Automatic annotation (TrEMBL):
Domain MmgE/PrpD C-terminal: 244-392
Pfam families cross-referenced by the UniProt entry: MmgE_PrpD_C, MmgE_PrpD_N
Listed SUPFAM superfamilies: 2-methylcitrate dehydratase PrpD
UniProt-listed InterPro entries: MmgE/PrpD_sf, MmgE/PrpD_sf_1, MmgE/PrpD_sf_2, MmgE_PrpD, MmgE_PrpD_C, MmgE_PrpD_N
UniProt family annotation: Belongs to the PrpD family.
Domain (MmgE/PrpD N-terminal) ranges: 65-217
Protein's UniProt name: 2-methylcitrate dehydratase PrpD
PANTHER family: 2-METHYLCITRATE DEHYDRATASE, 2-METHYLCITRATE DEHYDRATASE-RELATED
Parts of the chain that traverse the membrane: none
């Protein structure tokens, strides 16, 4: 069986294998993702992109998916190093609206889409791909969107595998370095839109090579796919909601800073796994919000602000006065904890001496999941409390007659 066949089978299994709790969790993922997308529409980067996009299905998927990731606030599977929420949820909602599908079909699609993109990330090394310049979400995101759309189009096994093959034919996505700009955040949008398109093409009879992930991808990525991960529940259950709007390696940093008294710090040293340092920085001056959200100094500023969950510190992209010098160093001991634990060690120097704190599992990781009440509070904050009725409908997604009840209030 080819890797694409295995991914398609896994995606098809997910809705059947999901427990009632997993289905309710999928609805919470839809809620969290769309809160990020609504807030993302006000992000400084969003304005330039919004002027370009129209109202076609592809354009809407691309725009919503990009917005969902703009604040780095969308859910992540750390071991696979992918953010499935941004590439799957908008696609599932908008295709369901387009096809007149009920809420239960959206839940099925989200479960299937998460399963495909996470399993692909796991089988090709997850965070280790950062070291060779690849962004796993951009690489494998089209597979997640294609799997989700295949469910909503009721594609049979042959057509669903073809959808993944068509999506795989265009896989790519380099990890941005230096200035991220708008381009980095368009990648999840393009991935989602390409995946949706792949499923529609498969429905029309188009096909692709079923060996793409076993031959060409192995050469391009420098590794063959590993064996399939254990069939235990569904992958969505191990995707963590983010409590802070910044790059995931900085979440353990923020937790460590919160455990220390940084108000009198004269210097902050942030140690991270070397494998996660390729897309974070310690710059005090950055080109824009995208770089600030990956900035260790801005994580320090967010903690000093007293509200590290607030998007404003990272969006302003200018350090306020009083942020101490911050340095970033690799720690081989933390590398040994990857891929399951994105750990950090923070050391501060104060007039009274040095103190250090290590966090192995950040808040929001599977070991320390963000409670549902905190996810709901996050949604209300991101939407300024304007979507309370929408929130109630989303939490009963499995029982909704149609997806338009959720898509219509979102622009």
């Amino acid at each position: 069986m080819s890797t694409l066949h295995a991914l398609a089978a896994r995606a098809a299994r997910a809705p059947r294998a999901a427990s009632g709790d997993a289905r309710r969790l999928a609805a919470l993922h839809v809620l969290d993702t769309m809160g990020c997308a609504v807030s993302g529409a006000t992000h400084p980067i969003a304005a330039a992109a919004a002027r370009h996009f129209g109202d076609s299905l592809r354009s809407r998927v691309l725009r919503w998916s990009a917005q969902a990731h703009l604040d780095e606030f969308d859910a992540l599977h750390a071991e696979a190093a992918v953010v499935p929420a941004a590439v799957v949820v908008p696609a599932a909602l908008l295709v369901a609206e387009h096809e007149g599908r009920p809420g239960a079909a959206v839940v099925d699609a989200v479960l299937a889409g998460y399963e495909a993109v996470v399993e692909a990330g796991l089988r090709f090394g997850g965070a280790s791909l950062y070291g060779s310049g690849w962004w796993p979400t951009a690489l494998f995101g089209p597979l997640g969107a294609a799997a989700a759309t295949s469910v909503l189009l009721d594609l049979d096994e042959e057509r669903a595998v073809a959808a993944l093959a068509i999506a795989a034919a265009g896989l790519g996505g380099l990890l941005s370095t230096g200035s991220f700009g708008e381009a980095h955040y368009l990648l999840p949008g393009r991935a989602a839109a390409d995946g949706v398109e792949a499923a529609y093409l498969a429905r029309a009879g188009a096909t692709g090579s079923l060996a793409l992930l076993d031959g060409p991808a192995t050469l391009a990525l420098g590794r063959p796919p590993s064996p399939a991960s254990p069939l235990e529940g569904v992958h969505l259950e191990r995707c963590g909601f983010k409590p802070y709007p910044c790059a995931r390696p900085l979440h353990a940093v923020i937790d460590a800073l919160l455990a220390l008294d940084v108000r009198d710090a004269a210097h902050v040293e942030v140690a991270l796994p070397s494998g996660l340092m390729s897309f974070v920085n310690a710059d005090r001056e950055v080109p824009g919000p995208a770089e600030a959200s990956a900035g260790a100094a801005f994580a320090v500023a967010a903690v000093l602000s007293g509200a590290p969950e607030d998007v404003s510190t990272f969006r302003r992209a200018r350090l306020p006065a009083g942020v101490p010098p911050t340095t970033l160093v690799p720690d081989p001991e933390l590398d040994a904890l990857l891929p399951g634990h994105w750990a950090a060690r923070v050391t501060i120097e104060t007039p009274s001496g040095r103190s250090s704190h290590r966090v192995v599992d950040a808040l929001g990781s599977p070991a320390r999941p963000l409670p549902p009440d905190a996810v709901l509070k996050k949604f209300d904050t991101l939407t300024a409390g304007r979507l309370t009725a929408w929130r109630a409908r989303c939490l009963t997604l499995d029982d909704l007659d149609g997806a338009t009840e959720l898509t219509r209030p979102i622009t």
